[in-house]
User: What shape does this take?
Amino acid sequence: MNKILLPIIAIVLLASCNTAKTDDKNTKPTGVTDDTLNTNFKQYSDKFIEALWLQEPEWATNVGYHEHDAILTIPDSNAHNNALLFIQTHLDSIKKYDLTKLTPSHQIDLQMMQNYLQAKHWSLEALKEYSWNPSSYNITGLIAFMLTEQYEPLDKRLQSCHQRMLKIPAYYAAAKTQIKNPVNELRELAIDQNLGGLSIFEKDYIDSVNKSALPAEEKTQMVAAAHKAATAVKDYVSFLKSLPAGAGRSFRLGKDLYDKKFEFDIQSSYTAQQNYDSAMARKTFLHSEMAKISRSLWSKYFGTQAMPTDSLILIGKLIDTISQKHTTPAEFQSTIEKQIPELEKFINDKKLLYLDPSKPLVVRKEPAYMAGVAGASISAPGPYDKNGNTYYNVGSLEGWPAAQAESYLREYNHYILQILNIHEAIPGHYTQLVYANRSPSLIKSILGNGAMIEGWAVYTEQMMLESGYGNNEPEMWLMWYKWNLRTVCNTILDYSVHVNNMSKNDAMQLLTKQAFQQQAEAEGKWKRVSVTSVQLTSYYSGYKAIYDLREKIKAKEGKKYDLRIFNEKFLSYGSAPVKFISQLMLNQ
Assistant: This one.
């Protein structure tokens, strides 16, 4: 769901009496912490969050803060200027805190706040995505969220939706003025996603209004607003369709923008280039391990047939054969649903970490307004809405041509579908986000680091197999290596495309021949890299950082090391950058 980052609400100026200088590179206390300073910082960070929600009312709704649910930001120049003023005000306030005298947890919060503000300033002034990404303008998902979540009585939610819908025509009118040189791939994505969300206004909202206990006159006004909102969406789509294809900028960021975005988004101890080099080395290692397993399995699947001498051909043949074991298009979602309890039982039996039984996971068909980027995802309640549903969104195969569906199911075969569920659900994203919402620090929950979140999900795949999930079947390990190779090649692909101008043909060769992905999966990944940047690197960078930390803790603690304690301790810090969590855990 898109976060609207161009606010129009007046900023709240927060002052601080502390005058010590901040060194954002120093993350370790160099002296005794100052209790008064820490108390003041906690009060400031709380006020910062309140001010942030005034600036970002749509984002506030998505994380469960509903004081500003009736406000819709109009993305015009006034909003742009207000955002810059908000950023500078709080960057000045943060400078007044001496990082070395804050507690370790507060140090992380301060640096995450600083990174957020600096990243947003850079995004507005240098990246300028608002001028070339038409898909950043889409209000359908926000209204759908307000309709489906049960955080308030339906009538009140409908009224808040109504207030926002009254401004939707102005919202899309302003969006059209912001778009200067649209990326063609993002223009097409915006068309698909906005059309996909039209039913929110044309059917879902109106159905909910009719079911409500609101007065008839108010219902009439709401229905009229919904029709105008739908017209505004259609008008925006028509505007996008009228733009000449290929007239805007390339979707490729280029090295300078890419390096800076990586620095802000990933918050790694390494540069984008170093992360890419590490991924290339990991690819070589994985190919070696996969070749060993493939040689050991060859006779089981091919008998006395001659074994290929080319290791990539050998691996590919084993993977193609094993991938024939998969579910059907009609049973894809139900198969996922059946695997969730099995994962829970394994984790509880092995005592890998605590799973909160009061936080249910709901598997559902992926909503239309979310389609077009990934085939499976988690939608979790925010820190203010801890009792909300967590959804496992599963892409539907309904209506797919038989060949395309078969290719997709071979990619998500019997083994990899289980790994996918570990990654997306338990103990991956779903579990991590439950823990994140329990963190006492709202900053860490709200400004969560994507590399930590994705890295945890990848780490848990290996952790589960190391703990015996899959009974150490070589087929499961081969498929996990393939899956991990996908994570590695995400980084290689993203950097190669956006920095090194990799062609689609070369990208498809990397994905299908070296990463052993099905054609449908590779095509989907090319689409994804053409409408996103840097995010694909978060999987490998986060995974490597967490795995390296675990091995350091294991070496440090020796016989006292306990995997469950490590997992739960790591998650207790919330969705903070791994480099900060590492410093805290290694210094304890």
